[in-house]
Design a protein that fits this description.
single chain, OB fold (Dihydrolipoamide Acetyltransferase, E2P), Rossmann fold, 3 domains, eight-stranded mixed beta sheet, seven-stranded mixed beta sheet, 22 strands, binds S-adenosylmethionine
Length: about 425
């Protein structure tokens, strides 16, 4: 049964929730900051404690600040925007330390987090819904599929946010009533790449409206994806990424690191860790974010499961000059991880898997003779699990650096350097 209680918040949990205690039971309160005295609604306790809905901040604590964004209280993004800079930075560190401690790696030093600036996100996905004569365009509401209309976004690059109003106009004209679309925008070296995902075929008028929009806004390319079918509406310039001076063609909405600064920091850590190696394997290589900078000094075997990403990497490698040898291989590393024997032919391994981590690959790595392993991860929990596997195989975790590319969100990237 729902009841109201007052709680003093003393810490932040793994997902950034404020954490306090009530009659000896932990209480998790999204939107509360350390130092706050809050009034919350709670239901029956769950496995880890009570989950509270914030009703009122009775006394704000020092860790709190006024969020800059006008839709902060509705939008599902930037959950931690209400935290002041220092408490936010401290949370990034303590979140990383907690994930390591959970795996018995609590004595590993965590470096100062690299935090990307506001207005630096270079890829976003907006949702749009035609409602009568108007159109709602923005992000999902907190814990809901409803869309919060936005006119700006404090974390996203202006090249993207400047397009919100023109996008609204063109989509209002072409989407039928109640039709929903997802808009993937990426800032590339040759301009904006736009992929619109919507379950409808484009008629001639809609196609012409999108072509006019691309010409007026100097968009590099627009693709329309109707239930998986990709329709290249207009390609004015091939979207390209610049990876350490190498131009790589980008497939629509392909994976790239979320910010320039984040990519630079990740590359810096990876390259520094591989110094001295002759042969490096880049596992889960994507379009070659690490392959190309590594290939300035090392032979690189790049292994990737997505054909489009691998083709982009190969496309970049074909025209690159002044680099050491790059070999690109298509392989499903979940079903067929590289074996310890295969890996032992290399001096360093970089692995950057999706959020699920790479348990099977880590088990092979743990048994290899590779002297340096660099783990790049967007999930501290799976990073911790895979780090434990490597530690059990005799690897020492020398350094962990949190890199925050998803400002004010509970997502953290980690780079861990292991040596044997
Ligand atoms: C987090 S991204 C990293 C990409 C790249 N390292 C970068 O920084 O741009 C993870 C990559 O793993 C790839 N991937 C996902 N599942 C895979 C699998 N089973 N085998 C091989 N690669 C896979 C994805 O296509 C994606 O390129």
């Amino acid at each position: 049964m729902l009841r109201q209680i007052d709680v003093k918040i003393t810490a932040l949990g793994a997902l950034g929730d404020g954490v306090g205690e009530h009659e000896g039971v932990p209480v998790f309160v999204p939107g509360a900051a350390p130092g706050d005295l809050v009034s919350v609604d709670v239901d029956a306790p769950k496995k880890n404690g009570l989950y509270g809905t914030l009703r009122k901040i009775i006394e704000p604590g020092d860790a709190r600040r006024e969020p800059a964004c006008t839709v902060f209280h509705k939008c599902g993004g930037c959950q931690l925007q209400y935290l002041a800079d220092k408490p936010y930075e401290n949370w990034l560190t303590s979140r990383t330390e907690a994930a390591l401690a959970q795996q018995g790696l609590g004595d590993v030093a965590v470096a100062e987090p690299v935090i990307t600036a506001p207005k630096s996100r270079r890829r976003v996905a907006f949702k749009a819904l035609k409602a009568g004569k108007s159109l709602v365009l923005g992000f999902s509401k907190k814990q809901s599929h409803q869309i919060v209309d936005v006119t700006d976004c404090p974390i996203t690059r202006t090249e993207i946010t400047d397009l919100i109003a023109p996008l609204r106009s063109v989509l209002t004209a072409i989407l039928p009533n109640r039709k929903q679309a997802e808009l993937h925008l990426t800032v590339t070296a040759s301009g904006i790449d736009l992929l619109i995902d919507a379950p409808m075929e484009l008629d001639l008028a809609a196609r012409e409206a999108l072509v006019d929009f691309a010409n007026e806004q100097d968009i590099a390319a627009i693709h329309w994806r109707d239930q998986g079918f990709l329709d290249p509406v207009i390609i004015r310039r091939t979207p390209m990424m610049d990876l350490s001076g190498i131009r790589v063609p980008l497939a629509p909405a392909a994976f790239i690191q979320a910010t320039d600064e984040g990519e630079t920091a990740l590359v810096r850590e990876v390259v520094a860790a591989c110094k001295g190696a002759k042969r490096v394997v880049d596992l889960f290589a994507g379009i070659g974010t690490f392959t190309f900078p590594l290939a300035q000094n090392h032979q690189v075997l790049a292994v990737e499961g997505a054909k489009t990403a691998l083709e982009a990497l190969q496309g970049g490698a074909n025209f690159a000059s002044g680099l050491k040898q790059i070999i690109a291989k298509h392989r499903d590393l979940y079903r067929r991880p590289m074996t310890a024997k295969e890996l032992s032919a290399f001096d360093a391994v970089v692995f950057d898997p999706p959020r699920a981590g790479a348990k099977e690959q880590a088990l092979e790595l743990a048994q290899s003779d590779v002297s340096t392993i660099v783990a790049v991860s967007c999930n501290p929990n799976t990073f911790g699990r895979d780090a434990r596997i490597l530690a059990d195989g005799g690897y020492n975790l020398k350094r962990v650096v949190p890199i925050d590319q998803f400002l004010w969100s509970p997502h953290i990237e980690l780079v861990g350097v292991f040596e044997k």
